[in-house]
Amino acid sequence: MDFNFSEEQSMLRDTVASFLQDKYDFEKRQKLIKSESGWSAEIWESFANELGILGAPFSEELGGLGGGAIENMIVMEEFGKALVVEPYLGTVVIGGGFLKHSGYAGAADLIGGIIEGKVTIAFGYAEPQARYNWADVKTTAKKEGDGYVLNGHKAVVIGAPWASHLIVTARTSGGQRDEDGISVFIVEKGAKGIVTRDYPTVDGQRASEVYLENVTVPASALIGEEGKGLPLVNKVLDEAAAAACAEAVGAMRKMHEQTLDYARQRKQFGTAIANFQVLQHRMVDMFMNVEQSVSMTYMATLKLDESDAERAKAVSAAKVQIGKACKFVGQNAIQIHGGMGMTEELAVGHYFKRATMIEGLYGSVDHHLRRYETLSFGKAA
Amino acid sequence: MNLDFSPEDLAFRDEVRAFVAENYPDALRAKSSDGEDLSKEDFLSWHKILARKGWVAPSWPKEWGGCRWTSTQKYLFGEEMARADAIPVLPFGVAMVAPVIYTFGTQEQKDRYLPKIYNGEEWWCQGYSEPGAGSDLASLKTKAERITGDDGKEYYIVNGQKTWTTLAQHADWGFFLVRTNPEAKIQEGISFLLIDMKTPGITVRPIITIDGGHEVNEVWLENVKVPVENRVFEENKGWTCAKFLLAHERSGIAGVARSKRGVERVREMASAEFGDDGDNLLKDADFKRKVAELEIDLTALEYTELRVLASESAGKGPGPESSLLKIKGTEIQQRLTELALEAAGHYASPYFRGFPADGDNMHPIGPDSAHRTAPNYFNTRKTSIYGGSNEIQRNIIAKMVLGL
What we know:
The structure holds two protein chains of two kinds. Chain A contains eleven helices and ten strands.
């Protein structure tokens, strides 16, 4: 057992952290998310070519840095600290995950594109009726000639406005909630028949409702085996959930730090409010929540390559811990900041909003508790 | 970073597992599974077996019998002990006073005390708390005045009262915090004394706790004559030893491995009990939810402890982060006893200690698993109070970690 980071991993963290400190402070980030596009293609370009981090989890043969899930964790934690909106999660973790795990024929080219910053990916898995059931897919893919025709509506596709490619789930057979019959497709976003309605999200990202209206794709758009896509989706979304846990850890560390700073300088009743024991204990409980979340993020990240059941159980356990901690740390950060915490002006509220969205991202606390229970106690009778 | 065990680690685990299987006394196993009180001999029998094997004090310096185990080996050892439901080695000698002696003591003190602690020849108790000094330990009043005896030697005459002294009824020796300078600031006038419990003037009186057990005692000291060479470290510097002791060996305090066994036991109990709908209690959605949340919290604690162990073995000593382990570990221990009590249902209630007079295992009413659940629940309330209450632990984190 070893909980130390390698020298390369520590360097990766330092590189990302110092770049973000320099180029992505809170004011710049606020300007960015209010801009028309809502992200910075220039920053993305720097991630690719100056830092090389878009290749962090890819093998050296593919042009990457030869890392894996731990590298994703490191990058995402630093992104969480700076509230980075650029689509590493969608592109590198999720897009890269699908391409790495599926034996997809075009993977090497697309991964090359990701590493160079030319390919950006958004994943449409949610549907308006489906909540957190990834098997609930109404979108259809009908075989036609050598290819498929896609029809359906994908909900809240994070990062879609910035994406060059979309990955979507669609049903090639079976009923609406069947686990069998789900297939995964990759399609250029400009393809004919893709209609999007783009909008900002409450936490400063951009997303789209994606409508697929008779989108014709070739057979080569199919990722993995036809009708057998769900296990792949589960694996990739578990990797994404672990990465989101790391992002949440970064955001929670910042909220805790900002709360301590604020409590030290805010004076009431003639003294800094940090001197009040009731607030000290609250801040200790926040600290414990953060540390327990760090532990769970490590645990889940290190178990991503275990069997499906082990991986899922580990990720669900982590997501439960992180979801609860996001709520506790976030709410108390605002509470201890008092009225100032309610303002748009202070960064803490923006971390709170991101942390709150991560609570529900890839499944809420209740969803993951239920999944954990099923894995730990067997299916309900 | 990885979670793999090396082949050496796995071989070590197997060695520990085999040793426990072969050497753990059957009589002890039967007593603990029946929930019987353990005698002094019971505690010492396992201690002595581990001592002969060389495993009773793994964290001590090598020259005194320590094992120089890696943090992974310590983890595996703890796991195996819990897995076998082996009784723990009592901390008062091995984990509390011994590190103070080998860190601050004279060569004579080390030679005199450490081997007997190691071999289980002398039983120790802790004289810290007083009726008026609980969480505010430094306000202790037991005083020690220095005199020259008729024999021309220097002594302390100790007067005062200690309380919550665990298993003092069996103790040969006690380590005591006493006030040697009443004029100084409260933390600066304290000394750390080793006192022979057979010295005239010491009276040990039982305190019966809400679970009906006798673990803790009052210890009264009336003109107790203690040779000056029984003081560890400098006069009036006892607080340094006290603080060191509180921070030492805290990683085990989380009790993760034992709580994991506790979860298994709760699950076993709940699979043998019925819910309101006649189905197995472990399938009851509400009960299951509580077990699942507990398991997840325990996993978070386990990995936090592993991180703390890893940073300790990287050369950083145990820090105030161990307060986190104490808080979360004891909360989980308490929640486990709540769940067991809940699972037992009606049969949590029968209580036979002292009825008629021969222990509480003579009248097996209801399932075996049920009949200690209520006393265990009551007894385990102590864990968030002792060893620095969980509120004090939060104060420590606030001050030492968060810098508030």
